[in-house]
Amino acid sequence: LNDPFVAEARRMGYRSRAAFKFIWIDDKYKLLKGVKRIVDLGSAPGGWTQIAVERLKKGTQIVAIDLIEMDPVQGSTFIQMDFMDEGAEEKLVEALGGPVDLVMSDMANYATGHKATDQLRTMALCETAADFAIKVLAPKGKFVCKILQGGVEADLMKVLKANFETVRHVKPDASRPESKEQYLLAIGFKGQNLFDKK
């Protein structure tokens, strides 16, 4: 109730305090620089999509997906579907129509209260998001994904380091200090996307 980020989000018309995490990452690492096409995985209630729309020029394509219903954010397209479901990737690729400059994921599972289970489930979401990013990113593309500290991420780091020029862990100011939440940031995609292979 006394969270200053919640109060500030209400004051500024943002849908969640998560908007400030994305603002911090973009301010520090210029995540949105040169970006023309974005995918927002696990987008509801829409805080990250809002910031992307607000900070980018008109004409930028933003496609958001979540299993939970989300009020439309003007300037973006929303698909209500579980990203982990069969067919979700194909639906996103169809909506995009071309390679992506940024794949961002703030996806999280519903917490079970069992630390190890929550870490593994969040890791699985991040690995699936990374796999999708590697398929659709344009050269020099970027990927950002939520993880929980202490999760088993050695294999994921190996994959990201093989496909991106820079990979780092970041913890925005708006992440609660006691939280295990962190973000993996991968910049400078080096691979070939599925659009180029067609």
How would you describe the overall organization of this protein?
This protein has helices at 4-12, 18-29, 47-55, 88-96, 115-136, 154-163, 194-197; strands at residues 37-41, 61-66, 77-80, 100-105, 137-148, 164-170, 181-189. The chain has 198 residues and is an alpha/beta fold. Strands 3-2-1-4-5-7-6 form a seven-stranded mixed beta sheet, with helices on both faces. Helix 2 packs across helix 3 (47-55). The protein is globular. The termini are far apart. The relative contact order is 0.15. The mean pLDDT is 88.
Kindly summarize this structure in a few lines.
The chain has 198 residues and is an alpha/beta fold.
Let me know the number of strands: 7
| Percent in strands | 15-25%
Strand arrangement within the widest β-sheet reads 3-2-1-4-5-7-6
Helix and strand content put the structural class at: alpha/beta
Q: Give the oligomeric state.
A: single chain
Q: From the alpha-carbon coordinates, what is the Rg to the nearest angstrom?
A: 16 Å
List low-pLDDT spans.
Answer: none
Number of helices in the DSSP assignment: 7
